[in-house]
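Reopening this ticket.

The earlier resolution said the output was attached, but the attachment link was broken on my side. Pasting everything inline this time so it's all in one place.
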Amino acid sequence: MRAPEWIALDEKTKNQDIMLAERFLAMVVVEDAPDAWADMLVEDLRRRHLKDVLARFADKPHAGKHTLKVIRKMIRAALDEEWIEHNVSADLTYRPAYKGWRAWTDEEREKFEARWPIGSAARTCYVLALWLGNRRSDIARLRWDQFDFKKGVVTIEQEKGGKRLALTITPMLLDALKPLPRAGEAVLLTMYGEPFSEKSLTGRMADWTKSAGLPPGCVLHGLRKTLGKMMAESGASTRQLMETLGHSDIKHAELYSRDAAQALLAKQAMEKVTRLVAKKRRG
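Inline output:
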């Protein structure tokens, strides 16, 4: 495909879109019938069909949302090729009720740090995810030459989206990195001195959190959420959140700001109520 929108995508996003598109095309149009969407003409696609597809993801709303995004891209491509004249997905609202990975609590972080000392692979993975706020793909391939300890900056080009970030090396991150041996290019190494693969980090973090006695839900991506939550609670602006976490969509950063603002406003409101009650009792 030579469309500029497609060319601009990074390889990881392209591969994900291809996988989702192939999965949609392999879906049968009607249950208990052999015809799949790959056998249909795009001009025969209707809104009711899209709603039926989304209904099949009722128990996996996150997958449904991404599937719809890819179908919309396919529809736009069909419009560009003039195979169709109307976008049947226009104004189709889909806001599934699902929760993404949650931030870790202070207690959970304390338990993890107590179980895994500085110098362990578990602790290194944890601090990189928490104090850089990046995804597992960027953590797995992080190299020592990306760190400028004199300037106190680490430079990361995110695999997803290709955004280039210059992030401050916090004292918390520095304390965890100082004792580490520089045994190779990669910062995060297995017990055999080899870099972790991106996929293996998910499983290893599950093992590490279980060993620390943490409940399900304490996942690697949740540490990225933890940093966003802490920044918002400390008063960081939405723009500062975007530039630290590498979000290209302001809506993602606004989630942190909105939650932090709600908690602060609720606290201030209840403090006023408490003062009012105390004043009436004294009077």
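Reporter confirms the inline version is readable. The CA atoms of residues 132 and 275 lie 40 Å apart. The chain has twelve helices and three strands.
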